[in-house]
Amino acid sequence: MFKVRFRLSGLSVVLALLAAILLGSASTAQAGYTYTIFDDGVGVTGSIGVTPGGNSFTTASLTTTHFSLTIASSTTNPQTSATSLQTQLQATLNSTGTHTISIQLSYSGYTLPVGSPLSASSSPSTTFTNSTTSDHSSFQAWGTGGSSSTFQNGTTGGAQTANSGGGLTSSPSMSPTTATFSFTNPGTFSLSQTLSITLGNGNVDGGEVQGTTTVTPPAAVPEPSTIMLALSGAPLLLLGRRFFRRQVA
Q1: Is 4 within a domain?
Q2: pTM of the model
Q3: Phi then psi for 47, rounded to 5 degrees?
Q4: What is d(CA 165, CA 28) in angstroms, rounded to the nearest whole number?
């Protein structure tokens, strides 16, 4: 009887552990993209969620009310030393008047890099073809602690913008060239970006904007024991220096 009870008891413990693991896995939010493409502020794709854990997406050959979308894509690369989020938007105007196409996206559930606060920097670029001087583009990134699929959420370094110089091809520098910010990381964090292009030269007018946001961990701080060890060696260095001077003299 004792042996039977022991076996049943052991089996119960194993089953309980398995159940806890499964329940824990089910309740854990998975990392992934969410994005929406807008034409003059109106969402034309709805909120699209990429397969959880997917580190890239590409949307091409999409026609909206005022634009022919060439490509909207993004890729992210979480690493211990630095995590990057790179996004591209390219489109051609297919109507008269001045109109804006944009993409808003978020990637939630990053776990790398670790530490807090995290530092972020964004560097975008833009190109216009057959454009007018009223054409312009913008890029902006945000970072926040926790797992959030909300667009434009958290701390930001501000918008980075550029105006076209007009003509066949124009590749103006975006201002500021680099935007920096920092945010608290409780263990997981999320990034979001918004890219937009405004065109107004008819159906020959095209534009592209792309940008990369890079997140790095806080600088390593020496442990107290390391500092004390270095300080404890200072008197010996001083004595050695004095002895060397006496020998030379």
Answers
A1: no
A2: 0.79
A3: -85, 115
A4: 49
Q: Are 155 and 181 in contact (CB under 8 A)?
A: yes
Alpha-carbon distance of 48 to 21, in angstroms, equals 30
∠ CA 206-106-39 to the nearest 5 degrees?
35
Asked if 136 and 157 touch (Cβ cutoff 8 Å), the reply is: no
Tokens of 77: 């690369």
Q: Which domain holds residue 147?
A: 27-214
pLDDT digits (tens, 9 = 90+) for 54-87: 899 999 889 999 999 999 999 999 999 999 999 9
Backbone angles phi, psi at 78, to 5 degrees: -75, 125
Q: Which two tokens stand for residue 116?
A: 């807090």
Whose structure tokens read 């124009």?
A: 170
Scanning the structure block, which residue is given the tokens 């550029």? 162
> Which residues have CB under 8 Å from 108's CB, separation 6+?
29, 31, 32, 34, 147, 148, 149, 190
Region of 243 on the Ramachandran plot (φ > 0 left; ψ -120 to 50 alpha; else beta): alpha
Question: Alpha-carbon dihedral of residues 143, 149, 151, 157, nearest 10 degrees?
Answer: 0
Count the domains in the chain: 1
CA distances from 3 to 7, 12, 14, 211 (A): 6, 14, 17, 66
Tokens of 107: 């990637």
Is 138 in contact with 161 (CB distance < 8 Å)?
yes
Is 16 part of a structural domain of the chain?
no
